[in-house]
Structure formats: C-alpha cells, structure tokens
C-alpha cells in the first residue's frame, strides 16, 4: 500500500508540473495549446537518450532536454503567434499529430512503437535515486521550483504584460507591447519546463513509449488546468490530483465494467469541464477563492 501511495504521489507531482506549465500560457497569456504532450515527450525521450548514451546525471540530461524542447517550441511559436489564438490552437494540433508520427517511427531515438526500455536511474552528484521515496523528494523539489519560477514571473513586468495581452491584445498593442515576442517567450519557457516533467517521467518509469505522449495526454493536462482553475497557482495542482486519483477511485466501484473505465473517465472529464464552464468558469480554485487576482 505504501508503494502504491508513493507511486501515485510521484505521478501526481509530475502531472502537476505539466498542468502548472500549461496554466502559465493558458491562464496568464490566454494561449491555448494542444501540443503540451509533445514537449513532455521531447523531455522524456531526450533525457532517456542522454542517460543511456552519455550519462544519467540529472544536471546533464534534463538541461539538454529543456533546451531541445525550447527550440522546438520556438519553431512552432514564431510563425503561429503572429496571428490570433485560434490559429495557434490549429498549429499546435498539427504539431501534436506530427510528433506522434515521429515518436512512432524514429526508432533510433524513440524506439518506435516499442518505446525505450531499461532507462537507468537518474543520478544527483553521482548518487543514483533507486528508491521511490528518493525520487519523490526530487519530484517535489522540482515541482516547488517550477511553481516558484512561475509565481515570480507573473508578478514581474513580463507577467503583467502577459495578462494585459490575455485581456486585450489590441489594448496591449496600443500600449506599445511587443505581443509576438512576449507570447513567444512565454511558450518557450512553458515548453522547456514541461520537458523537465518529461525527463522526470522517463527516469521514474524506466520505460517510455508513444502512448504517453499522444493527443489524449494534451487534452488530459488541459482538463487539469480548466477543472482546477486557470490563472491560479494552486488550481492546476488540484486539477492534477483530482484527475490522477479518478482512475483509482473508479476501479473500486465494482458495479462499473472494468473494460469501460477509460471511456467513463473521458465522460467524467468532459462533463466536469462543461459544468464548470457553466457554473464556475474560473475552475474549482478561482482567483476569487484564493484572494489572488489572475
């Protein structure tokens, strides 16, 4: 039971990083992306490749993964963010579809459909984190750092510029804001921090394949953000915890057909998002709930 709880908390922490980084561009910049799983996958595959071919050091594998994810997001953001939001959604969906094909076919890097197995434990200053609670501490520290970075950014002039663009691009442009640069930087930062979650996931699971980085994952993370509460620090964490706990909770309901649990989850996600949009648009943890303006 202890091992199960540790595993669950580690996965919740990883998905909390994912939802927090997506919330940075959704909640504070008003940029909706369906490609978050792409940067999650880039982080995972790059960290695995570096660990298996160079070194499993956290301070080597993770930074390389973050840089590669940032460069990839730059290729997406520069052309797509010159236009209004709906075009970026379409571009991000296209990137997601392309990435799934690459992840499935690039066997030399991703292992193809079979994925990558035998990823060595991550090392911190030469110490291999082989015990689950060791990895839990690392994951929680990373989550805390990501939250601290984003919390600091949203209270700087850069963060205020993001929120002004979210509220009204026309007004921000009239105020002299370089909208394209600001939005591009926010996407690059979000994507690089997302790669951190990917690297943690790869090291923890010791096995990865394309199934973890498909469109369904991007939609799941977006659901975590919307259900938890956009434009807040706590909201994405609450959303991640609820949606990661849901599968386990459903498995205890014996009257539900176990073969249909996945479909039931999707119905619950969709219903929850629709109901929240109607009755609580800010999510479970809205800015008013926290006494914090988005």
TrEMBL record:
A Pfam family assignment: BPD_transp_2
InterPro entries according to UniProt: ABC_transp_permease (IPR001851), LivM-like (IPR043428)
A GO MF term: branched-chain amino acid transmembrane transporter activity
Compartments, as annotated in UniProt: Cell inner membrane
Record-annotated membrane-spanning stretches: 6-26, 33-52, 58-80, 87-104, 133-154, 187-207, 213-230, 261-279
Topology with respect to the bilayer: Multi-pass membrane protein
CDD domains reported in the protein's UniProt record: TM_PBP1_LivM_like (cd06581)
One cellular component term from this protein's GO annotations in UniProt: plasma membrane
Presence of keyword Transmembrane helix: yes
Keyword Ribonucleoprotein part of the UniProt annotation: no
Principal localisation: membrane
Entry keywords, A to Z: Cell membrane, Membrane, Transmembrane, Transmembrane helix
Name of the protein in its database record: Branched-chain amino acid ABC transporter permease
């Amino acid at each position: 039971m202890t091992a199960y709880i540790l595993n669950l908390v580690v996965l919740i922490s990883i998905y909390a990083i994912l939802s927090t980084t997506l919330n940075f561009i959704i909640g504070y910049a008003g940029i909706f992306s369906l490609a978050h799983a792409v940067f999650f996958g880039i982080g995972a595959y790059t960290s695995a490749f570096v660990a298996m071919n160079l070194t499993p050091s956290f301070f080597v594998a993770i930074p390389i993964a973050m840089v590669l994810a940032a460069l990839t997001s730059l290729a997406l953001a520069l052309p797509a963010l010159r236009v209004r939001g709906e075009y970026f959604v379409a571009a991000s969906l296209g990137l997601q579809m392309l990435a799934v094909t690459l992840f499935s076919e690039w066997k030399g890097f991703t292992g193809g459909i079979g994925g990558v197995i035998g990823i060595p434990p991550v090392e911190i200053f030469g110490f291999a984190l082989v015990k689950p609670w060791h990895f839990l501490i690392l994951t929680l520290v990373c989550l805390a750092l990501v939250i601290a970075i984003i919390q600091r950014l949203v209270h700087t002039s850069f963060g205020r510029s993001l929120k002004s663009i979210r509220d009204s691009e026309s007004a921000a442009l009239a105020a002299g804001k370089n909208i394209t640069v600001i939005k591009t930087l926010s996407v690059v930062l979000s994507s690089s921090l997302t790669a951190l979650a990917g690297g943690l996931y790869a090291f923890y699971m010791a096995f990865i394949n394309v199934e973890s980085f498909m469109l369904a994952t991007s939609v799941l993370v977006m659901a975590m953000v919307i259900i938890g509460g956009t434009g807040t620090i706590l909201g994405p964490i609450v959303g991640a915890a609820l949606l990661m706990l849901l599968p386990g909770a459903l498995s205890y309901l014996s009257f539900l057909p176990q073969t249909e649990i996945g479909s039931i989850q999707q119905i619950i996600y969709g219903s929850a998002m629709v109901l929240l949009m109607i009755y609580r648009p800010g999510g479970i943890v809205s800015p008013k709930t926290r006494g914090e303006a988005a």
